[in-house]
Design a protein that fits this description.
Length: about 575
Amino acid sequence: MLSPSRLWHQGFTLSDAANGWSILNGDIDGTDSVSLGYLNAWFLRSPDALRRVNIADNPVDHSNPFYRELSLSPNGRYAAVGIGLPHAPENWNQYTNPSLQRLLKSNDTSAIRVPLSYALIDLRAGTSRALWNAPKGFSSQVSWSPAGDHILLAPTFLPPDENSPQGLSGAAAAELDVLTGRYAVLPIDLTSRTVVSSQWPSTHEIEISSTNDLGADLKAQRFTRSNAEWAPAPAANASATSTARIRLEIRQDLNHPPQILAIDFGTGESRLILDSNPHLLLQFKLGRVERLSGTLSNGRQWIGQLMYPADYEAGHSYPLVIQSLYGHGFGAEEFTLDGFWGLSGMGLGPSALVAYPGQLLATRNIAVLQLAVIHPASGVEQAHDYQLAFETLAEQLASSGLADRTKIALDGFSRNGFWVEYTLAHSQFPFAAAIAADNYDPSYFQSALANWRELDEQWNGGPAFGAGLQQWLARAPGFNAEHIHTPLRIIGLSGGTSLIIGQWEIYSRLKYLKKPVEMAMMPDADTHPSHAPQNPRQIMAIQEGVVDWFSFWLTGREDSSPKKRAQYARWHAFRSSSAIPAPQL
C-alpha cells in the first residue's frame, strides 16, 4: 500500500472505501482509520511471556470496548467476555427484540461493533471459544457458580431453536455449563423486569432479584436444581436449603451509601463488615434524593431520580438541571453521587466520567433530575419523546414550586446530547443553559462524513436527497440552529480534530448567528481519546467545566481562580451579546 505522500505525488483515484472521517486523519488510501481504533487484540501476560489469544477463533475482536463486559470465574480459571461478530448467524433473524434486530442490521455494515455474543477465555490454556449460539442479553448479568464451571445469564436470549417467547425477546434466564455448552432454562419470565442482582447461594441454588420498569415490586426468586432441572424453591424452605450459614449482603438506598453486612441464615442477625466511606454523610452535606415517575401526554412512561438542593427549604424555588439518560428501567434503590443508577454507586460511575455532576450541583443549591423515558419510540419519534419529557418535567417541577422556570437547564452525553440539541432546536420552553457532550448528531455534515448513515435516515424520515431532504430541513438540529437561543456548551471527548469537524455544523451555524456557544475539548482528546475518560485529569476537567457552566448561567456564581478569568470574560461576552440577563440570586 502506497504512503499518502506518494499518492499525492503521483495522483490517485479515491477509493470506494474512503469516508470523510478517515480522510480528515490523512488516510486517502481507503483505510478506515476511525474503525481501526476498534480492532482489538487480546493477550495473556505471565511472568515469562506475553501470549496472544484468538477470541472465538478470530485474531481480531471488532468490539467497541466501551460496551465490553468481562467476568472472571471465582477460581480465576475462566473469563466470560462480550465480543463483536463479523457476521451474525442467519437464524438470529428469528429473534423478536426490535433493538437486537437493529443492531444485527448495523453490524453487517459497520466496522465498529457492539458486543453481540459471549466468548469464554481459558486463562490457563490461553484459548477461547464461543460460549453458545445466542446473542448477549441487554443489561444481562453474568454470575458464576461457586465452583467456577457454570454461569447464570439473566436476562438473556436463548438459542433460536429453543423457540421460547422469552428466549426470542431476551427476557429469559439460563444456567450454562461453560465446559460442555449444555444449558438449562430457569422457570422465570423477565419481560418488563430489571434484574438488580443474581447469585448462587450454593452449587444447587440460584437467586434472581428484579424490579419492574419503575424500580418497584422487588422480587427475589430462588430456584433449586434437581438433576439437570431447575424449579422454584419452596418459600418456607428457601433459606433452609442453603449449605452456607452466613451470607454477605450489600445494603443501601437512595440516601444511604452501601454497607456490607454478614447475615446469619439461622438467626437472621446481621453484623456490619465494611463501611467503605463512614464519614461521607458527616463531612459533606448532600441533597436528599427521591424517585419520581409518571406518564407523558403521548402515553410514554418516564422515570426520574431527583436530587434536592443540599440546603433545600420548602417554599423556595431553585435552579434545576435535567440530566438525560437513554431509556431503561430502574433497578432497586441504590446510592449514587452523580444521579446515575445501576452502575455508579460510591465511585465515579459512567455518568460522572462524562458530564453529569449530580451532587456536585446539589451542594451549590441546584436541583438535579436524572430523567429517562421508559421504552421510547424508535426513529424521530424517540427524539420527540425526550423533548416532551424535558418540557413536561420542567413545567411540572416549576409548577410545584421546586424549580425556578427561568433557571432550568439540560445536560446530555452521547445519544442524550442529541436529545438536548434536538429539543433546543424545536422547543418553545426557555431553557437557561445546556450541555451536549461527545454526542451523535444526525445532521447533514456528520452524516456526509460517514457516507450517509442509514441510522440518520431513520431519525430524519428519509435520505438527505430529493424529497427526503425536506424532512432533514425540518428535523435535523444543524438545519434549525436559528431556533436555538439557549447557551450551549459542546464537549468533545472521544477524538481530536475529527470530533471537532463532526460537531462543526451546529457549532459554526450558532457562531455565525452570534448565539452563545462554545466547544470545549477534554485534555489529551487527540492522544488519549475515550468516550468514557479513564484518568483523573480528564475527569476533573470535564466535571469542573460542567459545574462552572451551569453555576454561571443558573446562579451567577463564578470561580475566583485567576486561571479562569478568560473563561468568564468569554461567558460575560456571550451574555452581553445575547441580551441574557444575569440570574438573580
